[in-house]
Amino acid sequence: MNELEALRRWLDDLRASVERKAEGLDAAGLAARSVPPSTLSVLGLVRHLAQMEHHWFVRTLARQDEPQLYVPDGDWDAQFRDAVADEAVAVDAFDTWRAVRDRADAVLDRLEPADLEFTWDPDDRIGSVRDALQQVLYEYARHLGHLDLLREAVDGSTGE
Amino acid sequence: MSDMWLPPGEDPREQAEPPRGERAVVLGYLEHYRATFELKLAGLDAEQLARRSVPPSTMSLLGLLRHLAAVEHSWHRRVLDGGPEVLRLWGKAEHRDADFDGAEPTDTCVEEAWAAWRREVADARAQLDGDDFDRLVAVDGEEIEVRDVVVHLVEEYARHCGHADLLRECIDGRTGQ
Question: Are B41 and B65 in contact (CB under 8 A)?
């Protein structure tokens, strides 16, 4: 398996783990701030992960001039603060996240292994295609750590 | 306002030159998350480190430190080194959660955990230095590439840094990347 194929498989595995962490929760469970004083919730993290994938794959790699998702007027706290226990808010978050993933996959489908070397800013720690993909993987992994503890505090469930 | 753990200029994770190429980037991330994890434990006493601060989870920062020492140990000795089944740290072979369950709020337990983690990190670093990412190694009867082992290790660190984020915030309110 080449590096690009491996990166994509890891990404798919991480997305599936996030899906499992959210599975079976109603709007109240999804929006629960279950580990106070943290303001994180499962729903807030799904919105954040949609924003994060959109930023790296659509805005950065595909160079699409679109505003950040869930950051109205530069209000970065909104993605977590406005993740409220409302069915419509939850449906929107999951629909948005899945749509972003489809767009991200379309961007990744066009890459060749050699494109991983493409560097747009040699001075930036995340200035190449490889860096961006690696960054997305570990963002997912760190947020899965948050999801583990949030979910366990909601209903006691644990697991990969 | 920055959401970083330390102000710019004081962060040991800052580097002059960003790494380039698969090896350097992936190993750079591994060092980044090892350092992040270490920072998350800084400035706490034995009671705080051993505190199960996010119930009902039985995790503590000290438990995570012991767990990550065992993770490093297991991957580099059992998988990368390809040796016979070696003794698992903390008696994990007999008791799977021994790393978490044995995290006691004593200075001795904390010192032992740091010593084990530092030793295993140093050994894993030496093992990975110069290893070929395309090389195949056996894990549970399946062959995987060394690159899979390393990325898995970074993912595991990153996920445990996520646990450490919330455990730490519930101990003294401190947050940051």
Answer: yes
Q: For residue A2, list chain B residues with Cβ-Cβ distance below 8 A.
A: none
- Read off the tokens for B117: 């983690």
Please tell me the distance in Å from A95's CA to the nearest CA on chain B: 25
Chain A positions in Cβ-Cβ contact with residue B18 (cut-off 8 Å): 122-125, 127, 131
Contact B160 A146 (CB under 8 A): no
Q: Whole-angstrom Cα distance, residue B17 to residue A122?
A: 9
| Tens-place pLDDT, residues A32-70 | 999 999 999 999 999 999 999 999 999 999 999 999 999
The model carries a pTM of 0.95
- Which residue stretches of B14-86 are H helix? 22-40, 46-50, 61-73
Burial code (b: 16+ CB inside 10 Å, e: under 16) for B107-118 equals eebbebbbebbe
